[in-house]
Amino acid sequence: MPANGPAKLLASVLVALAAACAQPQAGTLYRDFTLIDGSGAAPMADAAMLVNEAGQITWVGPQAEAPRARTVVTLDDAYVIPGLIDLHVHLGVVNGLTLNSDNFTEENVERELATYASYGVTSVLTMGTDKDLIFALRDTQRAGRPDRARIFTTGQGIVFRTGYGGVPGVNEPVSTPEEAVRAVALQAEKGVDFIKFWVDPELGTMPPMPPEISQAIINAAHAHNLRAVAHIFYLEDAQRLVDQGVDGLVHGVRDQEVDARLITAMRERGVWQIAQTLSREASMFAYGESAPFLTDPFFLRGVAAETVAELANPARQARIAASPHFHDFPEFLGAAQRNLMLLKQGGVAIAFGTDSGAPARFPGFFAHWELQLMVEAGFTPLEAITAATGHAAAFLQDGSIGVIMPDRWADFVVLEADPVEDIMNTRAISAVYIAGQEVWAQP
Q: Of 439, 425, 414, 436, which is closest to residue 384 (Cα–Cα)?
């Protein structure tokens, strides 16, 4: 080989590489936006993102460094956040304002998933009131590219016989630890993502789940390599469950201030405050009068007109205001907000959930109300968004969603205003994408 052979070969390789780099890449480049990526990092102005034809993110960074792409979408100084992840919903059990297991049909579930997506909620974890068709719907999504909110499910949650929780016709109550162990095994066999159970005595009106049953549920869940999450209200129940090895709490403590013992135990044992469900607490008294959002276009676009009319009915509002604990509900909300901040300050892992999907707790809209209430409690807007995106995905242990970065699904929301400046701007949605597909756009 001539002396200059290696040099010529190297030059040829460099020319070939340069030519390859000059070729536009497959997929779509989104550019000209400010990125809030879901990790908690500061926003990145003048950002760009490349999404491949399979709907996955392949590159994110400053738009000045962006690779060439066959398709370019300019977002005109918009703001982009990951799709929100609501870790506490109930799917398909409500028609209008009526709760009934017969409502759980494929049509109703898919309709609600589309509603969640239209509000920028691109993944949901259902909390214990699903019929078995949920598994086929979830598995079909995971085998392809969903065009509505992604499903994670706890199947049929476990309820103590004569106790609080579940939906008649869906949940089969248990009376003994042995029955509880069999119930967990059945859910594991069906392929649930988590085990959920209720211990709440419903303000003293129902018998609580005995400790030996909750311990059996937690142990059985762990034996099946599943995490167990619990519906609670009282500090005493929360502490006992943490001591028993529960993995997460799906409501906040609302009867009193959380103490240092609970905070330390949750932090050191890695127990998540999965959802504080502040919007659930606010909704318990909001409908005792004409709730201000009943005329909000952002609310109205996801709710049937006849449902709005029923909520606005003075007779219904009077019935709500006459309930025995109506005047206690604002304090329960205040306690939940204060305790959320104490847990946060104490280093407890916190994610995001609303308890949407029960009567008058509206899919999608409640996620934005929840963000607002978190900020009112003391979170910064960026912290609240991170809890609903990157932290929620971390709880799910799903490395494919929650943060806008390479090798994750392109589930994202395009906003017309800055949500870090004002959390109410998460409502300024111009488009929603799931797996790189536009699933909703502002008309």
A: 425
Give the single-character DSSP code of 169.
T
Separation CA 320–CA 324 (nearest Å): 9
Ordered strands of the 69-82 beta sheet: 57-62, 44-51, 25-35, 69-82, 412-415, 429-434, 437-441
Task: Report residue 195 as tokens.
Answer: 């085990």
Supply the pLDDT for residue 375. 98
Give the pLDDT confidence score for residue 5 in this predicted structure: 53
Angle at 291 between CA 285 and CA 296, to 5 degrees: 145
Using 70 as the pLDDT threshold, list the residues of the chain that sit under it.
1-22
**Are 199 and 231 within 8 A, CB to CB?**
yes
What is the per-residue pLDDT for 408? 98
| pLDDT of 22 | 59
In single-letter form, the type of residue at position 132 comes to D
Residues 6 or more apart in contact with residue 233 via CB below 8 angstroms: 200, 201, 203, 251, 253, 254, 255
- Please name which of 108, 96, 165 lies closest in space to residue 133, comparing C-alpha atoms: 108
Tokens 């007109």 label which residue? Answer: 305
Q: What is the pLDDT of residue 23?
A: 79
pLDDT (tens digit, 9 = 90+) per residue, 344-369? 999 999 999 999 999 999 999 999 99
pLDDT at 239: 98
Cα–Cα distance, 380 to 34 (Å, whole number) = 18
Ramachandran sector of residue 34 (left: φ over 0; alpha: ψ -120 to 50; beta: rest): beta
Q: Hey, what long-range contacts does 313-320 have (CB within 8 A, 24 or more apart)?
A: 316/287, 317/287, 317/288, 317/289, 317/290, 320/285, 320/287, 320/288
CA gap 223, 234 in Å, rounded: 27
- Closest by CA to 128, choosing from 312, 358, 330, is 358
Give the whole-angstrom CA distance, residue 55 versus residue 146. Answer: 10
Residues 6 or more apart whose Cβ sits within 8 Å of residue 218: 228, 241, 244, 245, 246
pLDDT at residue 167, as a whole number: 97
Q: HSE on the CB side for 265, CA within 13 Å?
A: 18
Determine the pLDDT at residue 91. 98
> CA-CA distance, 100 to 109, in Å (whole number)?
13
Q: How far apart are CA 297 and CA 174, in angstroms?
A: 44
Q: Residue 290 — φ and ψ, nearest 5°?
A: -80, 100
